[in-house]
Amino acid sequence: MAANVLMTGGATGIGAATAARMAARGAEITILDVAEPDHGHGRFVTCDLSDVDAIDAALDALPGPWDALVNVAGIPGPRPAEPVVAVNFLGMRHLTERMLPRLRAGGSVTTVASTAGRDWQRRAAVVGQLLDTPDFAAGLTWCRDNATLWERDPYTFSKQCAVAWIYRAAGLALPHGVRVNSVSPGGTQTRLTDNFTAQIGAEQVAWMNRQIGRPAEPDDIAKIIEFVALGDCGWLNGVDIVVDGGLSAGLTGGWIDFSQSPAMLVRAAMKRD
Known about the structure:
Elements: E1 4-8, H1 13-24, E2 28-33, E3 43-46, H2 52-60, E4 66-71, H3 81-99, E5 103-112, H4 124-131, H5 136-145, H6 154-173, E6 179-185, H7 193-200, H8 202-212, H9 218-230, E7 240-243, H10 247-253, H11 262-272
Parallel strand pairs: 1-2, 1-4, 2-3, 4-5, 5-6, 6-7
């Protein structure tokens, strides 16, 4: 029987590449997005993840049960900051929690996070405060009351929360017989590339790409998402899988010297001056 997959953010980029792969293996796909896909893979339902009522309305109108939830939707920021956290974390969390009882035993949740979130433990005290909020509304209130703690870089904070929450979500899903994992891409050529380049700097982005040969293409990430969501990996649960061509390994293993990156050289020069 064909897998029944609900996907957010399937219109473009990594989501579109994932939808194509899943459709090729015969999955029935329903895409929740603010933009209608033009690739023709699956059914489309309009849904804005920054609006909790829109999420609830979309889910209430959709039949189940489901075999997999794939959370791809995301926005980069940095401004306005609040929608970044609302879409990338609060909306994703709300939708996932509502979907858990509707997933078949043996089903899966796969969330696309980011390597920007891999160091969430460095900010665990702040990240944990948002994770401790019980629902979307309470999370939004916390964000407004504590804006100085996160709004300078809302994208990184939202992805740190997404990665950290995976470990909690795995426990929430276990009674339903559902696996929860995340996939964290590094630099990937999508419609968001120009935005990230503007934030990080073109020289820094080029330097990072040189260390590993090239940036990822959407299908490089989609291959991993497809496997984690629908592949024969039933014992894979509660993990964040970094897919960045080895950049994180190089920084950790010492064969990439980040101190020689353009950003760090500029910073060092400013300290000397």
